[in-house]
């Protein structure tokens, strides 16, 4: 058994037997207890971002905070990750991504609520938050907080660095770029920004994320419009592939359903980062009036990511790209967009979007890695981490595609399971603070309820 197959088998086993049941169980429990805020409060989250008055303790606005979270989410997982999902788990993997994102949103909410509740300020005036702090302060488990921070560091290198660089380098190598030159350019661009610190990451994310998302969505909608007659059959294929109950108890198709489920959850976790604990770290410095507000705003990100993932998956299906032998990762996406647009410009849109997606994701994960280093050691070690993070970028360019993805899945599963243990333990606090805020005057006013509706509520 080669190393790649070993990592793949281990990653799928963790997802299917551990991550899936734990995430679903906790997601259902919190959804019921909190009365499904991912449905009833999501519009409030969007309005809070749009009507941010800039008040509250923190150094970045809600828009900059959510843009930074999306910078971490909207990476290669939304483009290359969908090709990996369909290539490994089949079209049904996308349905399980929806399930994961729906219940992942409540975990995102819970984590950011706790992050705001237990955040602290360092001597630089920055607010620090995330699972390491609410595990230490809320659970009183310093060793578990250290373990989460170690997993965060490993994931920053595997998911935030190697996978992103690997995916953006593939199409550039395809058109003749030298791999070493690619690694130097990416390293220089990343090194320039992370020396500027966390606020520069938020500033760049708030400028780049809206542009790159709009560009990508417009072209994806254009392709689906050209292939409108294939969209409904594509949805039918998704559901047939995801729920093949006729042979769930055995046989090749039963295995296929299990693979679709595990792959869908792996790619869903990778694309949305929901439940992993990255969002509470990235949003800790936002100008928050209430920890619950930060939780509600955090739910916006998984739904935006899910829309982009769904459009990518549909484009891969309606163009037939997922059935073309030999196409993997980014190359499948460039083929699909070029065929869908009917011109090589389609492929360039993917390349440009992917570069921007990957670049902001690399920056966001570098920020998370810094916060893990600050927790484990002190701020003096952050400089060393930055140089190491930039110096290891060439590994992503030359590494095997499948290997870096499986490595990222394993390290991210470690973050997820550690964080979920904290969310489960602190769920009484999450429920109590949520109920208190949802009945408060502040919430009712922002939610545009008149006096009569307030009395009824």
UniProtKB/TrEMBL annotation:
Indicate the principal place this protein occupies in or around the cell.
membrane
The portions of this protein that span the membrane are 12-32, 65-87, 93-118, 144-163, 175-196, 208-228, 234-258, 296-322, 345-367, 387-407, 413-431
Q: Which InterPro entries match?
A: Na/Ala_symport
GO terms (molecular function) for this protein are: amino acid:sodium symporter activity
Membrane topology value: Multi-pass membrane protein
Please report a single Pfam family linked to this protein: Na_Ala_symp
Q: One GO term of the cellular component aspect?
A: plasma membrane
Give the keywords, sorted: Cell membrane, Membrane, Symport, Transmembrane, Transmembrane helix, Transport
Where does it live in the cell?
Answer: Cell membrane
Q: Which family does it belong to?
A: Belongs to the alanine or glycine:cation symporter (AGCS) (TC 2.A.25) family.
What is the protein named? Sodium/alanine symporter
**Species, as recorded:** Candidatus Criblamydia sequanensis CRIB-18
